[in-house]
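Support request, please re-run this one:
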Amino acid sequence: MQKLMGLVRRCVDDYDMIRAGDKIAVGVSGGKDSVVLLTLLAGLKKYFNKPFSLEAITIDMGLGMDYAPVAALCETLEVPYHVVKTEIGPIIFDHRKEKNPCSMCAKMRRGALNQAILDMGFNKLALGHHYDDAVETFVMSLIYEGRISCFQPVTDLDRTGIVQIRPMLYIHEKTVDNFALRQALPIIENRCPVDKTTKREEIKQLVFDLSKTYPDLKERIFGAMQRLPLPEWAPHGRYKRPKEQE
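Re-run finished. Output below.
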């Protein structure tokens, strides 16, 4: 717990993610990444030198998922929890019968989440993207779009005034998995019909296979992102490679 909170603290400091008085919402899907982020930020809040408020928000896609375990965790962490009910799932899969639903789904979820955040008066949204997500997104952009790109550690959404932050970028996916298991965190099964069959899963497997031959592949890609050609990724502090926790 202390090691992971230390990595979150370093990431937050390197990219100036949290400032005194921030009202932060954690986007909680119920998956391991968002639940771990919520747990770590709740822990960080207790000793961070810049006071901030923290609440959790879930966009219910209308797929019949039970978020009671997440609500119980939030009560334990003393973090207010909000569930925003939508019909995004039925609209995409039942009514529109989208063949490639991921893009539209992501857009609708972002819209619902941003609107909820604005309505509740938050100024920042914390998302559970980790180290491997960043590497895989970079490779996806390169292979499928022919451009050098990735989401940013801190993103200003000009139209809404919301700032997105990603405090877990220094934590490997394997470390997230192990932490969730050891802490017995409640993980909600994803009922999305196309879960684990996306282009991202293909890239995840590609990176995994390449890493067998080039063990430092992910570290080299991540380091390249922090140097150039992505200036938004340049950290304020001296970056050190985070190790995967067994």
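The chain has one domain: 2-233. The radius of gyration is 18 Å.
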